[in-house]
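Sharing a chain and its predicted structure for anyone who wants a worked example. Both blocks are below, sequence first, tokens second.
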Amino acid sequence: MAVDPEGRLLLATADGPRPSVLRAGPALVSLGDGLFAAASASAPGPADTILIFERDDDELRLLQEVEAPGAVRALASAPREGAARLLAAVESGERVTILPFLVRRATP
């Protein structure tokens, strides 16, 4: 998984990288178990969005959009069984704040 210069998410496939219809910013992180988080493709502003998506074979599906109170500059994760701790570095004004999130896969 990667983000190309146009902001398209690229999927690694047996035939090589394939662009997805989903777009994202440069911050991208694996949450484990086929889940990923990325900053939105929107230009930085007073608020931003973190995208949570799932890889299913050679397709991506957007699961959730989470609002952030500033521009998302970096993402990191610590996957755990059944969940992942997601940390987002969010810039607002002249401050950068680390926001923690707990991401769990929905149960049927």
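Comments welcome. The beta strands are 2-3, 8-13, 16-23, 28-32, 35-39, 48-56, 59-68, 71-80, 83-92, 95-104.
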